[in-house]
Amino acid sequence: MTRPVDSGVILLARLMLAALFLWGGVMKLVGYAGFVGYLHSKGVPLVHIAAPVATAVEVLGGIFLVVGFKIRALGLFMAVYTIATAIIGHDFWNITDAAVQRDMVIHFWKNVGIAGGFLLLCVTGAGRISIDGARAPRGGLSSSL
């Protein structure tokens, strides 16, 4: 059970995470050919499947974050997705140029931090200001008897 202020903070966290993923997903759609080329350059197998899946995960995940739908499961899924994208997309250990490597290190650890935020959502849930919150039974004496 969360206090009203907690639900507001959880909503803000959801919206902040959603902004990142909605933006990324829309940019993948707008520059789809470039995204496919990037995946090819990283050696991602089955790019014809990976590209639309990644785009859908980011757009749909962002929408689910905004409305607060299935947040506990989404939090776990998005944490795993974010770590996977860190390993595939920010593989600093394969970079020889010092400036590019430093940039990739920052992006890698940023993704790890984002995954931590998703794990917190997995534990806290969506809060009251959400579809999940609206569907949850309200506590009270009658519900605990």
TrEMBL record:
Native source organism of the sequence: Paraburkholderia piptadeniae
Membrane topology: Multi-pass membrane protein
InterPro entries linked to this entry: DoxX, DoxX-like_oxidoreductase
Subcellular location: Cell membrane
Domain of life: Bacteria
Pfam families: DoxX
Membrane-spanning intervals of the chain: 12-35, 47-67, 74-93, 113-131
Keywords: Cell membrane, Membrane, Transmembrane, Transmembrane helix
A Gene Ontology term for the protein's cellular component: plasma membrane
Protein's UniProt keywords contain DNA damage: no
The family this protein is said to belong to: Belongs to the DoxX family.
Protein name as catalogued: Inner membrane protein YphA
